[in-house]
Every structure is written in structure tokens, then in C-alpha cells.
Design brief:
This protein is an alpha/beta fold. It is built from 18 helices and 27 strands. The chain folds into four domains: 100 residues, PriA, 3(prime) DNA-binding domain (GIY-YIG endonuclease); 180 residues, P-loop containing nucleotide triphosphate hydrolases (Rossmann fold); 240 residues, 3-Layer(aba) Sandwich (Rossmann fold); 93 residues, Alpha-Beta Plaits (2-Layer Sandwich), CATH 3.30.70.600.
Length: 671
């Protein structure tokens, strides 16, 4: 019997980004099937994926004019749920159909031969379930009941650093596997995958676990993919892309450190792994756990609205108090003649710690290259009065520019608040901190973790292993040292410059700063003694820093939510970032101006349109880049997406179109 298939062809261009109809009389073709088709003027057959099956040809197309598919691949197909999710991604993220489909595919390009076992460095250390605290027991019982019910539920597990969230994940996964269902565990960094895999291997063994992340070779990825497809592996652990694991009966998805920005893709398709987890959990009637000591403002707000079920773990597992936090006012250090990256208090505490054979972690945020302008006397920062974000300095025009709305102001010669002449761009890097630490403590064994020192495969793991074995006294690093590391001998954490992350040109700068400071602080005092944290800042009265020093998430959240509400930032809106890029700067800017005018006309005031403005990195990869931001109220997200998608199609076909048009929804970087 003849049927008709709407297919997505394997051609990643704007001109072929639509569904094509083919006739099919081959038995077995279904949604998700891979087929071979004759397409356009190409002589070779190309792959296509069945998106929809129709009993009749589409209206207006005579059946005799419709080509037949040439072959059906009986050895491979996507699940109906995977194809449904790919179509959803096309609508939600305005990506091409084939870009969404490719997320669910293995590499298909590996050569036959030996594939290195991704588990060969991991030995199972059989482990029984640990005795739970009262708070853990209640959390495990509530989540376990949801798993057993077979109904879709979303939990936000808000637990302080060291509260034992991982044990709750393990016991929930044990219940899921006993129910005969499958699970996914996501971690924010590939570097954290081995630690997580070790915990799950110790509990469940290697045989049922598959690992998926971008550092696997094509052969490894294919081998793991086959283990999942055949049902040999029912538990998948990995970074962001593991959310696309081809499991067909998901019972539990765990996203650890759910606040991390790495769960948002910055390459097309620009998806959000948490949104995809919600989608897949809904479709497969699974439980989703989002765990964090510092939940994203957006997800905590959802839990306050009853969309997520919130569970609290308010104390550390070992009943140790959270570390004591001191704030070092760097404006006083400058006045006292100290231009070093270390405050007097930090030096004294490092000395004490090292004498007591305790280890020290010094944390910096490298995102500070965005060159904010601030005063070293009073902490004033040049900020856009309209958008409330820091205005980076552009040397080529000699002005500070807002990268949201395009407003610019001259670089001040004196501080507008206190009149000081010590105002300008400041920054400190890991290398400078390492040099100073070695100068002050020449006997201490010091190591640095940044892009320069961990570029070689296995370098990061080796550095962390030495620190774990107490062969390193001082560990200096960027965000990698603030995430998920569990060392019991760390007595002191120093946050070298809290202002760096506070003043990046991003509405989430306060949120990111609170999260980073809290997560970094959480590396201290995880053994039997209370730890110490010193936060260095030029703005000691800042509300975010004060809340972080008190480990007070609710204080931070309440303050941040009011700011977001006042200027209509997420969770009260969705932000669409539209970038016009071209090797010709004038062409890129002119296209952005035309698009901004059309957007304002189309929305008629229902959505705010900001810009266009040059991006922070005006030229990247040989292309000049200008951005427009659209703020769509939460209830208008889909309508705004449809309108922007329609305009994109018009612009691509019209005269003067830039070489590249990029759309990102709620991006985590505006660089």
C-alpha cells in the first residue's frame, strides 16, 4: 500500500530547511526511519529522516508528481520520541531541521578497529548505599515515590555544598533501574565526568553504564551508542550532549549543578539541555531532578510558582558548619599602598593554613577580559542607566558602550561618585597570582589550572590527582576549581577578585557571581574542621557579595528577582539575541538596522527591541557582528519566535542579506 512520507533531507543549508514529501511502498517505513532519496539535481542518493507519515498526498500535489524513496535502512532508525523532540527543537530554537536531527545521531564515520574503552582507567570499588540524614531520607522517599508511580515529575533539589545530593541521586537511580527503566545523569563539565562515573560505577558496576561526551573518539561514541541502542547500557552519564542519548524508556534524568551555563549550547542548534530534559521527561513520563546549592533564579522562581517541586537539604552531610566567610576591602588595601593581588588578610591566612599542613585554593574568574571600568577608591562602576549592566570600554572610539541598547558615554577622567583619579580598566590573571604566591611562599608547592595548563589530554586530571594526594599545597585556578571538587584537607579558599564577574556586561552577572563565590567557598571545610573563605572586593557593600558571605541564597534571590522584575529580564521575559554578521562591517550593520526597524514595526510595542549595537567582540572569525535584543514577555515567547523566524526567512532571501544570521534564545553570553 502506498503511503507518503514528509522527510528531513541531510542537507544543512537554509534553502533546504523544510519538509519534503516522498511516496513509499516499502513496508516498515515509520517516523524516525532513515531512507535514501533522490534530491534535486544530485546524481547520488542522499540520506533523509522520516518526520511524518501521511495516508494521502498533501493537498494540491498530484500523487503522480511525487518521487518515491529509493531505499529504507532497516538497521537504523530514530525513535518516534526522538523525532518528535527534533521537530520541537526546530520550533523552539529556530534551528534547521537537520541540525536538530543530527543531535540524536551517532558519528557514522568511525573506522573498524579497536576502540579504547572509556572505562579502562576506572576500577569498581563496590559500595553500599550510605546511611542518610533525615533531610536526605525525606528527599529520597519523595523522589522514590514519584519514580515508582511512573508519572512525570520535576524536582529542584536545593542542597548546600556538601549536603549529600549525589547520594540522593544514586538511591533514586537504584529505584529506577529496579523498576526496569533507564536513566541519564548530566554533569556540567567533561572534567567532572570521571568523578561522577566513578561514584555510579562503584554502586552499579560498569556493565550497565555508558558514557557520552565530546571528548570521545568517533569509534568510542559509536560503540557506546550501540550499547545504548541494544539495551546493554541502561544508564548514560555525560556532559550536555548526553541528553540526546537514544534511550527508549527513560525513568529518571538527573542534572547536577543545574545552574551551570554549560548546559546551554553556544553553537547551532543553540539548545538548553534543561529544557530538553523537561521535554524528554514529559514525553516518556519520567522523573527529572535538578540539583544545585545555588539554583538558577529562573528555576527557583519556577519552584516558587509550583511548576517544580522543591526539596531542601539545608545542612552538610558531616554536620560540619559551612565555612566562615570574611570580606577583604581592597579599596583600603590600595589606600594603604598595597597594589598586590593579595590582601593582607589573605596572606596571613595562607601562611597560617600552610603551617597547619592545610591546602589552599585561590579562585579567579577569567571572564573578566570584558574590561569594565571601575574606581579603585570607592568601587564605582560605569553602568548603563537603561539596562543596568556594566559598559565595557571601546578603545577604538574612546567611549564606554552598552552592548544591549548601544548607548555610549565618554571614559570618565575622574570618578563621578568620589572624584578619585584612580578610575580605569583593571584586571588580574592566574599567571600573575601564581607568580605572587610563589614569591610569598617559595617553599609551598603551587599549581595552576587554566587553559594554558590543562590543554593536553589528562593534564587536568593529573593536577587534581596531585592535589587530592596532598602533593600540592596551593591550587590556583578559574571556574574549574570552583565546581564539584571534594577534597577534605582544604582549609582556605581565596576569591581573588569578586568584582570581575560582577561587572561583565550581562544581566546575569550578579547571579553568576553569587553562584561562583558560593561554589568556590564550598570547596573549603569539607573535612572535619570548619573552613575559611576570604572574598576580595572593591565593593564590600554590594548586595550580592554580602549575601554570598552569609551563605544566604534567599537574600540573594529576593534582591535579584526585584531587579529582574523592574527591567523585565528572565524569568519575566525571554530574550532573543539576533546577530547580523558579515566580512563587510557596513553591510552587517545596515542589515541589523533594517531588521530592528521591521521588528519594532511587527511587534508594535508588545515586545521591547534593543539595538542594534556592536557585540563585545565586534570582529570574530573574520566577521563583523552587530546584535539586536528582543525582550518578549513570558506569555509571548512562541508568538515572538514565530515572528522572528518568519522575518529571518525574508531576510535570507532579500537583497543585502548578511553572510550569517544567528538567533539565540536566553543566551548565557552576550560577547
Amino acid at each position: 500500500m502506498m503511503k507518503y512520507l514528509n522527510v528531513i533531507v541531510d542537507s544543512n543549508t537554509n534553502s533546504t530547511d523544510e519538509l519534503y514529501t516522498y511516496a513509499c511502498d516499502i513496508e516498515g517505513a515509520a517516523v524516525g526511519s532513515r531512507v535514501k532519496v533522490s534530491f534535486g539535481t544530485r546524481k547520488r542518493l542522499i540520506d533523509a529522516y522520516v518526520a511524518q507519515v501521511l495516508e494521502e498526498p498533501p493537498e494540491g500535489i498530484p500523487a503522480g508528481k511525487i518521487k518515491k524513496i529509493a531505499e529504507l535502512d532497516k538497521d537504523f532508525s530514530l525513535s518516534e520520541e526522538a523525532m518528535s523532540t527534533a521537530l520541537w527543537m526546530h520550533r523552539r530554537y529556530l534551528c534547521r531541521y537537520i541540525e536538530a536531527v543530527n543531535c540524536f545521531l551517532p558519528s557514522f564515520n568511525s573506522r573498524n578497529g579497536r576502540s579504547r574503552d572509556p572505562f579502562e582507567d576506572i576500577e569498581q570499588r563496590p559500595e553500599e548505599a550510605k546511611e542518610l540524614t533525615e533531610a536526605q531520607r525525606k528527599a529520597a522517599a519523595e523522589i522514590g515515590a514519584a519514580v515508582e508511580s511512573g508519572e512525570h515529575s520535576i524536582f529542584l533539589l536545593h542542597g548546600v555544598t556538601g549536603s549529600g545530593k549525589t547520594e540522593v541521586y544514586l538511591q533514586a537511580m537504584e529505584k529506577t533501574l529496579k523498576e526496569g527503566r533507564q536513566g541519564i545523569v548530566l554533569v556540567p563539565e567533561i572534567s567532572l565526568t570521571p568523578q561522577t562515573v566513578q561514584r555510579f560505577v562503584d554502586r552499579f558496576g560498569k556493565d550497565i553504564i555508558a558514557v557520552l561526551h565530546s571528548r570521545l573518539t568517533p569509534a568510542q561514541k559509536d560503540a557506546e551508542y550501540k550499547r545504548i541502542m541494544t539495551g546493554e547500557a541502561g544508564l548514560v552519564i555525560g556532559a550536555r550532549s548526553a541528553i540526546f542519548a537514544p534511550l527508549r524508556d527513560i525513568g529518571l534524568i538527573v542534572i547536577d549543578e543545574e545552574h551551570e551555563t554549560s548546559y546551554k549550547s553556544d553553537k547551532s542548534p543553540k539548545y538548553d539541555a534543561i529544557e530538553l530534559a523537561v521535554r524528554r521527561a514529559q514525553t516518556q513520563k519520567a522523573v527529572l531532578i535538578l540539583g544545585s546549592a545555588t539554583p538558577s533564579v529562573q528555576d527557583y522562581y519556577r519552584s516558587s510558582q509550583g511548576i517544580f517541586r522543591r526539596i531542601e537539604l539545608p545542612a552538610r552531610y558531616n554536620e560540619n558548619p559551612l565555612p566562615r566567610v570574611e570580606i577583604a576591602d581592597m579599596t583600603l588595601e590600595v589606600k594603604a599602598g598595597n597594589r598586590s593581588p593579595f590582601s593582607k588578610a589573605l596572606v596571613e591566612e595562607m601562611d597560617r593554613c600552610l603551617k597547619e599542613k592545610k591546602q589552599v585554593i585561590l579562585f579567579l574568574n577569567r571572564r573578566g577580559y570584558s574590561n569594565h571600568v571601575s574606581c579603585r577608591e570607592c568601587g564605582y562602576v560605569v553602568t548603563c542607566p537603561e539596562c543596568g549592566i556594566a559598559m565595557p570600554y571601546h578603545k577604538d572610539i574612546g567611549r564606554c558602550v552598552c552592548h544591549y541598547c548601544g548607548r555610549s558615554v565618554p571614559l570618565p577622567k575622574v570618578c563621578p561618585d568620589c572624584g578619585s583619579k584612580i578610575i580605569g580598566m583593571y584586571g588580574v590573571g592566574t599567571q600573575q597570582v601564581e607568580e605572587k604566591a610563589k614569591e610569598l611562599f617559595p617553599e609551598a608547592r603551587t599549581e595552576r589550572v587554566d587553559l594554558d595548563t590543562v590543554s593536553k589530554k589528562g593534564a587536568l586530571e593529573a593536577i587534581l590527582r596531585r592535589f587530592e594526594k596532598k602533593k600540592t599545597d596551593i591550587l590556583i585556578g578559574t571556574q574549574l576549581v570552583a565546581k564539584g571538587l571534594d577534597f577534605d584537607n582544604v582549609g582556605l579558599v581565596g576569591v581573588i577578585s569578586a568584582d570581575t564577574s560582577l561587572n561583565i556586561p550581562d544581566f546575569r552577572s550578579g547571579e553568576r557571581s553569587f553562584q561562583l563565590m558560593t561554589q568556590a567557598a564550598g570547596r573549603s571545610g569539607r573535612g572535619s574542621e570548619q573552613g575559611l573563605v576570604i572574598i576580595q572586593t572593591y565593593d564590600p557593600e554590594n548586595a550580592v557579595i554580602r549575601a554570598a558571605s552569609r551563605h544566604d541564597y534567599l537574600e540573594f534571590y529576593g534582591h535579584e528577582l526585584e531587579i529582574r522584575r523592574a527591567v523585565s529580564y528572565p524569568p519575566f521575559s525571554y530574550i532573543f539575541q539576533i546577530i547580523s554578521a558579515d566580512p563587510d562591517a557596513e553591510k552587517a550593520e545596515a542589515a541589523a538596522l533594517r531588521w530592528a526597524e521591521q521588528l519594532r514595526s511587527s511587534f508594535g510595542g508588545s515586545c521591547a527591541v534593543l539595538g542594534p549595537a556592536a557585540t563585545t567582540r565586534l570582529k570574530l572569525g573574520g566577521m563583523y557582528r552587530f546584535q539586536i535584543l528582543v525582550k518578549a514577555p513570558a506569555g509571548l515567547r512562541q508568538a515572538a519566535a514565530e515572528k522572528i523566524g518568519e522575518l529571518k526567512k525574508e531576510f535570507i532571501k532579500g537583497e543585502g542579506a548578511p553572510e550569517l544570521i544567528s538567533i539565540d534564545i536566553n543566551p548565557y553570553s552576550f560577547m
